[in-house]
Specification:
- The complex is a heterodimer.
- Chain A is an all-beta fold.
- In chain A, strands 2, 5, 6, 10, 11 and 12 form a six-stranded mixed β-sheet that branches. Chain A has a four-stranded antiparallel β-sheet with strand order 3-9-8-7, with no helix packed on it. A two-stranded antiparallel ribbon of chain A has the order 1-4.
- In chain B, a hairpin with a 6-residue loop joins strand 9 and strand 10.
- The chains are: A mainly beta, B mainly beta.
- The interface between A and B is medium-sized, with 20 and 23 residues.
Chain lengths: 112, 111
């Protein structure tokens, strides 16, 4: 089975600091998409950022940015200037045809 | 637009009972999905559909059935519920190549 691995079950960060979440994946496809989703305590799944594998430029969305290393099959998420509202579980996902494979998630806690 | 909605939001079943979860989307998406979320395991795909009248098995299909009679609706059925099916269920939809939009989830407990 093609897998997505998030090696950090939990991370804690001080408000206004930066935290980086790691994600590695495997795939036999040359073109695919990668995503980071956020799941706050409300349980709603919210898209944070999206990366097309054929694009070399790393995606950014305000305080969120990724480091996409295609050859290493690595897709890390950096949260800058962390805010209390960033407290949530974060899931990395990789497209497989039109389906998604998810990692197990990383719980991020932002401390005041 | 309501996006993706799920009915019900919570349900408690006894072992052996049956139920149907309804997912509806108003974004005219071709693709729809049912996932289950269990602690420490992320989201796992149960079944999915690439268009009206079509369904396919995902990663964990056993004990579930689905139907997509209308493009906007995707139903997940449990014919004989088991405690192992206690989980949070999410429906999602999208267009090819784009992010999936998720419903709010259904928390199901099987006693």
């Amino acid at each position: 089975a093609q897998t997505v691995t998030q090696s950090q079950p939990e991370m804690s960060v001080q408000e206004a600091e930066t935290v980086t979440l790691s994600c590695t994946y495997d795939t036999s496809e040359s073109n695919y998409y990668l995503f980071w989703y956020k799941q706050p305590p409300s349980r709603q799944m919210i898209l944070v950022i999206r990366q097309e594998a054929y694009k070399q430029q790393n995606a950014t969305e305000n305080r969120f940015s990724v480091n996409f290393q295609k050859a290493a099959k690595s897709f890390s998420l950096k949260i800058s200037d962390s805010q209390l509202g960033d407290t949530a579980m974060y899931f990395c996902a990789r497209s497989n045809d039109y389906k998604l494979s998810f990692g197990a998630g990383t719980t991020v806690t932002v401390r005041a | 637009n309501a996006g993706v909605t799920q009915t019900p939001k919570f349900r408690v079943l006894k072992t052996g009972q049956s139920m149907t979860l309804l997912c509806a989307q108003d974004m005219n998406h071709e693709y729809m999905y049912w996932y289950r979320q269990d602690p420490g395991m992320g989201l796992r795909l149960i079944h999915y559909s690439v268009g009206e009248g079509t369904t396919a098995k995902g990663e964990v299909p056993d004990g579930y059935n689905v139907s997509r009679l209308k493009k906007q609706n995707f139903l997940l059925g449990l014919e004989s519920a088991a405690p192992s099916q206690t989980s949070v269920y999410f429906c999602a939809s999208n267009r090819a190549g784009y992010e999936q939009f998720f419903g709010p989830g259904t928390r199901l407990t099987v006693l």
